[in-house]
């Protein structure tokens, strides 16, 4: 499938979460008493974080016709008042010229900052942090209910090569960088709420500066790891009919059976594609944050999505709104990845006997391989029978 389209779809789904449409609409207000200007109800509704229809202000920028007619009598601005000018600036209707150069230099007022900040400090931390705790609790419960998945009959003692050194290097580059990014990302997002009260501003400041430096630079290793693992493993992760059988058998997790599988089973394919798709998306939004205002992606993505699904996402975004969307999206995708990866780490280490060796020294026990990847073992043995190697 077209990666851009896929990214756009995933992006749109998260936008539903972020777009200030999460706020309820404020009740309609009669503004005749104020001559169409703001009322106390408007101010109160905004304080209650209701979504106020601002068109009564954004479309009230003075009457250009009358302004032009009386310009000469009243000076340069004619019939346009100070309020008209400030409203024009706020709603990006004025043609601003500044001496400062830069992609967002001519945005003098932007009011997306507060909703963005509240979303980041509120629901993102609460739901994101909650999801991480949730998956950890779930895995602990799973461990006590199901126990470690053992090799039936014990290990055979014979080894079979599962991953070559270059594959393990790609995996650990991806894994090491992801873990570093996850920790430094969480520190940046949650430090203000959870660390400053404990270690104080000065210590946190040093930690935050180091964390940001690490996060920005380790990101390149993650992207390299992503490309490497994609190239090496994509052929083994194309979905096929067998995956459906594996899913129907629940991976044999509770029935303690061993559904057939080639090199990667359906569960692993799900992890692979989650890592690849979300990995590309987190990288793109990360690049957009790394090069502020230079890689805006949301307006374009929204118009593609609107074109396909007939949705109504905003397609005219200010440079700051682009950054705010990128930031929120980056966190949502990162949390989704962390949840999947915590489950992956569990099953690749304490959750399953013999699994870690595959990425440890590259060789797994033959009995483990027969039980979890029978068709792959058959393929390798057939090749070796013909004098080839795995
Ligand atoms: C300490 C952390 C980790 C451990 C112990 C671990 C362990 C493993 C093991 C043992 C395998 C091979 C499974 C097999 O033989 O079939 C594997 C595969 C894989 N790992 Fe990890 N891993 C870790 C972290 C990560 C991270 C952070 C990522 C990505 C961000 C990742 C992505 C993958 C992918 C895409 C595969 C191939 C598909 C799959 O087997 O699910 N791993 N990992």
Molecular structure report:
Its cofactor is heme. It is found in: Cell membrane. Belongs to the formate dehydrogenase gamma subunit family. The chain is built from 15 helices and 2 strands. With 390 residues, the chain is mainly alpha-helical. It has a single domain, classed as Transmembrane di-heme cytochromes, Chain C (Fumarate Reductase Cytochrome B subunit, Up-down Bundle). The chain has a two-stranded antiparallel ribbon. The protein is elongated, with a radius of gyration of 28 Å. 23% of the residues are buried. The structure holds protoporphyrin IX containing FE.
What are the salient characteristics of this protein?
binds protoporphyrin IX containing FE; elongated; Fumarate Reductase Cytochrome B subunit; mainly alpha; 2% strand; cell membrane; two-stranded antiparallel sheet; 390 residues; 64% helix
